[in-house]
Amino acid sequence: MEHDFHRIRLLPPYVFAEVNEMKARARSAGRDVIDFGMGNPDLPTPPHIVEKLAEAAQNPRTHRYSASRGIPGLRRAHAAYYARRFGVDIDPETEIIVTLGSKEGFASLAQAICAPGDSVIVPNPTYPIHTFGFLLAGALIRHLPVGPADDFMQRFEHAVRFSLPPPLALVLNYPANPTAQVVDLAFYEEVVRFCRDEGIYVLSDLAYSEIFFEDPPPSILQVPGAKEIAVEFTSMSKTYSMPGWRIGFVAGNPRIIAALTRIKSYLDYGAFTPIQVAAAAALNGPQDCVDEMRDTYRRRRDVLVESFGQAGWDVPSPSATMFAWAPIPEEFASLGSLEFSKLLLSEADIAVSPGLGFGEYGDGFVRIALVENRQRIRQAARNLRRFLVDARVPADPAPRRAVAS
Asked: pTM for the whole thing?
């Protein structure tokens, strides 16, 4: 018996899967693939965090069910982080919840606040869960093409005026994945003012708050009155190189936090308690490890931009995140991002993420993750130089995809 399941029908073909399958076949054939595809940190979790995990795991009481909204010590540690980093007072009892990474947080929040037919405004290109978490909850998605920050409000206000039904929420993501774009506090002030007037919730993804190379990114919760309409997602994954630990947070508007808390109480019992104890130790402990990781990403960024530029591909230098958002070289632009990514992998053993996977407005770009060391980046540049000299655009390239991730 076969079923055409409704929610599965909502999901378009997963663009990244084609590149991932090609990577697997290339590695099986013994080829040395230099992988800038997934934003999967390669740096080790700092030792003091791992030691705290091991210590907590020795206590058999921590092996019991945990708390779906997070243990009190971790919520207090996150509140303390907001106080020292942003000067924002967060109540750990009513304004913070711990999630199984920010990805799960977005998906669960969509279930908590959306009714079928609600409208949500989502940037494009963007991280896929920003779109599909709400789509799977039955919401209608209005894509907002994102470019320079000074264009945003005009486009956003236009989208609000012509949205039926009026939008329930707006998703923001700065520093942005995949584009690495950043904004200042004045940007958030304008968004908060408009959204309060219009009765629109703001869902801000600040996962890359600590990976920056110029000015530290602000929080939307720094804006007076923002907690009336806004919540913010943060994550331990990139800041402390803990992606597999699956610890994230949502902080802000207590009504939204209460709704998410209730939904999660039906879905999970929270992360393994020793992981939460170790996460609290990370937030409360020495932060020089964060500075060191940031410096590592900065040095990788500089080598990437310089060496790829010398090879013939001008890659804009990102001011934050662990990604570079690179326009497809002009001679290959007709291929689109998926076919260009496949060609780059097959001919140069370099794996990147096609921009199409983040939305149709990303199709002229690829995302390059800074997850290889500097020697490997230079090796990739040598491969790239040969590729740009020898490669030819197929005479009959495959048609471009019309779907996003």
From this structure: 0.92
